Amino acid sequence: NNGEISAAFSQNSSNQNSSSDQDSQKSSIISSSTTQQSSYSYSSDTSLSSSTTEASSSETSTTNNITAVKNVLQSGFEIAPILYNGEDVGKAMDEGKAPQNTIHDGVEFGYLKDDSLARMSLMGGAFDQPYEISEGILTIGDFQFNYSENGNSITFDTYEKSYSDGSTITWQLSSYPGAKYSVDSAYVQN
Question: CA 35, CA 131: separation in Å to the nearest integer?
Fold first, then answer.
């Protein structure tokens, strides 16, 4: 089934400062150098044929990777804040370090509408947002997620964005198969 996505989703955390296991565990929660990834598996009827030149093999690989990313996003996705200034966003909100509406007002749902527009919803309103998928990079509006392909899975890295108030929010793109219904039923449609 071309374009069928299995619902495999995993998050991996790795900390670049590993002086000891205990320090690594503590800093993986609050360190801004934490890298989190989402992995999605996909299946496709498209098969790679062997190529006589590296250029056409590379072009085929790029095309297949882009198709695989589209397959993952077509059923729906969520973009949500996970860290606020390097700290778990829920904990930062509980401790008054982050605005109380950070999660509620920040989570976006979406699905791919066509080859250049994603249909998105945010705080009860739906709108079109341009997107672009190139080799290794997915750009949706102001968000830019690096991705990699390994076998039958696509892995999206988190995206860290700085704001004018001096805060930094780390965003995670996740699979959300119910996004189309959620977006299309938003009370404001633009």
Answer: 23
Task: Determine the Cα–Cα distance for residues 92 and 40; give it in Å rounded to an integer.
Answer: 28
The end-to-end CA distance of the chain, in Å, is 33
Residue type, 117: L
Return phi, psi of residue 19, to 5°. -70, -30
Cβ–Cβ < 8 Å for 90, 170? no
DSSP state for residue 62 in the 8-state scheme: H
**Are 130 and 117 in contact, with CB atoms under 8 Å apart?**
yes
Give bridge partners of residue 79 from the DSSP assignment: 108, 173
Distances 58 to 47, 48, 53, 62, 66 between C-alpha atoms, Å: 14, 11, 9, 6, 12
pLDDT tens, residue order, the chain (190 aa): 333 333 322 233 333 333 333 333 333 333 333 345 554 444 333 333 323 333 344 566 677 789 889 988 998 999 999 999 999 999 999 999 999 999 999 999 999 999 999 999 999 999 999 999 998 999 999 999 999 988 778 889 999 999 999 999 999 999 899 899 999 999 999 8
Neighbouring CB atoms inside 10 A of 40's CB total 26
Question: Residue 71 is inside which H or E element, if any?
Answer: helix 54-74
* 3-state SS class at 169: strand
**Other Cβ atoms closer than 10 A to 44:** 15
